[in-house]
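Holo prediction. Input below; ligand is zinc ion.
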Amino acid sequence: MSLVLSLDFGGTKLGAGVVDVDAGVVLERRRAETPPGAGARGSIEQMLTMARSLLAERPAAGVGISFGGPISADQRRVVTSHHVAGWDDLPLVEVVADALGLPVVMDNDANVQTLGEWRYGAGRGTRSFVFVNVGTGIGGGIVLDGKLFRGAHGMAGEIGHTVVDPDGPVCTCGKRGCVESLAAGPYVAAAARERLIELLLPLVVRLARSYRVEGLETADLVQEDRRQRHIGRIAVPEHGRERSPTKHVE
Ligand SMILES: [Zn+2]
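Structure of the complex:
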């Protein structure tokens, strides 16, 4: 039985587990929120506490790190984190190796997920394989001819940051119109919300006009300029109160 300690540094969560790599089974796991405002050092301290407690129960032969952000080409340093401060150019492999006294390897979360799915999941038994993860962002990884394909800067599988609409919304990476900024979870939710409002507002207006509510003198719910997407004025004189005329829903 070969045991490996697996550490996952995410944007909002930290995960640690001991894995039997022969069987592909997670034997023990711990989870914690990324300590708010504590920066990279706080996250590392929290992770090392979980790691030590796991190692005390199940001694592992080595450590694998998954990092939720870009890492250096030699896979030893974090380049940066888009979510937590203090990660810029941080030699995470060295820090963890020194703290735990074990050999450590690291890759970004998309590549690690790709390898996991290739070895134990949907990609098992294939020679070439593309992994796509759609969540808060869109990550991915590519296996070509039996090997993880990293590309010149280790970002070959990052299909989420392929620009498909140069005039599209600004992405977390700073570019416009990436696949991620158009198709990831938050964008789909925002687009659905907008569509729902477009569909529902005319219905609400029709209802307000067709039902004469006693004492309700004006029910001008929608201002003429729909493009501003402001919900208009609702005056309810019998109660002597007025609701604020603008609620921005964009
Ligand atoms: Zn992007």
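The helical segments are 39-57, 92-100, 109-120, 179-183, 185-210. That is the main takeaway for now.
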